[in-house]
Amino acid sequence: MRSVIVGVTVILALTAIVSFFADSTAALQPAAYSTYIVAPGDTLWGIAAQLAPPNLDRRAYVYRLRQLNGLLDSPVIHPGQTLRLPIGR
After folding, report:
1. Residue 73, CB half-sphere, CA atoms under 13 Å: how many?
2. Conformational region of residue 80, where left means phi above 0, alpha means psi within -120 to 50, and beta covers everything else
3. How far apart are CA 74 and CA 26, in angstroms?
4. What average pLDDT does range 7-21 have in this prediction?
5. What CA–CA distance (Å, rounded) separates 39 from 22?
6. CA–CA separation, 60 vs 25, rounded Å?
7. If 0-12 CB within 10 Å is exposed, 13-18 middle and 19+ buried, where does residue 83 land?
8. Which CATH class for the 2-88 domain?
9. What pLDDT shows up at residue 19?
10. Contact yes or no for 88/28 (Cβ under 8 A)
11. pTM for the complete prediction?
């Protein structure tokens, strides 16, 4: 009986963990894209502060911006540059 309780507890814990990560990555999966024209003085962090959904960690939004715009090697952006922005579900 004890092993059944332990087994059920482990299954419930694993289900909760998988559900947590599925929910957090779903927030990063875009349903569509919008665009943003970089203005002088803009940074990815500043853009994320203005545009990231309130329930999403700003670091995750910046990382997604970098992924969508081919900026994984360098986060440098330039005025006039068009960035793809995720529109979360």
Report:
1. 1
2. left
3. 25
4. 57
5. 34
6. 9
7. buried
8. alpha beta
9. 56
10. yes
11. 0.61
- Only one residue has tokens 């900026």, namely 71
Contact 83, 65 (CB under 8 A): yes
Higher pLDDT, 89 or 42: 42
Question: According to the model, what pLDDT value does residue 40 have?
Answer: 97
List the beta bridge partners of residue 82: 37
- Phi/psi at 35 (nearest 5 deg)? -125, 160
Amino acid at 84: R
3-state SS class at 29? coil
Tell the residue number behind the tokens 């002088």, with chain if given: 40
**Per-domain boundaries in the chain:** 2-88
> Angle 44-51/58-68 helices, nearest 10 degrees?
120
Element (H, E) at 19: helix 2-26
